[in-house]
Amino acid sequence: MIAWIEKWIEPKYQVEESRKRFSNRQLRRMMIPLFIEQLLLMIVGLADTMMVSHAGEATVSGVSLDTMIYTIFILIFSSLGAGGGVIVSQYIGRQDRENGNTAASQVFLVSFLISIVLMIVLLGTGNMILHLLYPSVDPAVMDACRTYLWIVTLSFPANAVYNAGTALYRSMGKTSVTMRVSMVMNMINIVGNAIGIFVLHAGAAGIAWPTTISWYAAAVIMTYLCFSKQNTVFIEWKKIIRVNREMISKIMSVAIPNAVEGGLFQLAKVVLGSLIATFGTAQIAANGIGQTIWSLAAVVTSSMSPVFITVIGQCIGADDREAAKYYLWKLLRMTTILTFVWNALVLLALPVLLPLYDISEETRQLLIIIVFIHNLFCGTIGAFFGPMSSGFRAAGDVKFTMVVSIFCTVIFRTSMSFLLCSGLRMGVIGIAIAMVMDWALKGIILVIRERTGKWLSHTLI
Fold it and tell me: What are the residue ranges spanned by the domains of the chain?
């Protein structure tokens, strides 16, 4: 069976054996820890949601409202890390350890400085932003909003440094390390939440402080590990405290389009959230629970994206564009198999998952329909709308992927959602259909782009 799978994942486009930088075993060693890490994040997220529900409705509402703001900043820090990861991967492929160390060190410097600025700005304007976004919210909910946002804003430097460290280790293919650190971080968070909610009864603060403390613990561990000279690349104090404008420019050339893309995507989610809020209770509940199950079903695609960045980035750094094309299609085949199997398993698990929710029959039927739509398309074309974009970014084709995402997700998906939901009155089913239409369009555009070869025509280092 394994032999058949390994034969099937080999693309028609081949290169000489000597140019195949990663064996199947090496790819598995990168993929499995990332999958476990993402799955654990999902499980911890579910556990957190259940515990938060015991802190009272005002706290639950406050935390959920803050999450829409907080997520934007997390996207910025992850984009900075991803930008550095692409550059470092290419230097590793070129076997240029000196510049690789410089790039890694500058990612830490830039991420830390930007996080400090954003932390100060949000601490100073947080209350104003909350009142501007939620002017008519209940006073108890607003108090929870202010408390939670103020505390988690203090975690920005740790969040940024942690993302820089994980990006560095993933660029080296050492995903088992980031998995173990993530386990420690999530354990601190979940135990802290349990103490804050059930023992101290601290409300929003009992949820926010464990989150902040866990980020700092993870950041300290990752930073310590990144100084190790036994790594392929490592950070150095002398290169952290010295600004290298040329290297920062290279990092930001990837990070800025990533941040713009992620920020606009989050904005589109907020807009669609306002649309969903106009539906009936059953539809809103179905969408909310559906989002959780969709996230579970998307674990494979989200865990494969860093693999694309590492593998394609190192091939491009070695100036072997033919190997980059070979691995792009090999990873797409691997991702397709894994997403198909995983999404099928999630569908089969629905009879077990649905009884966990106390919902009406109408909500249950809607939930089954939208989960089936999601998993059918995620399981067949999932590799082509997410991980493939990461492969293009690793090759330097960042502006194109940004423009495609803005058009497909922000413009096409949003407009189709309003047409299907409001115009054709399809409700949350229309939201699901618009989502998979976005994926299909994005996948078609990216495949056409790959066929032209233009994604391989860029130079980052």
Answer: 22-253, 278-461
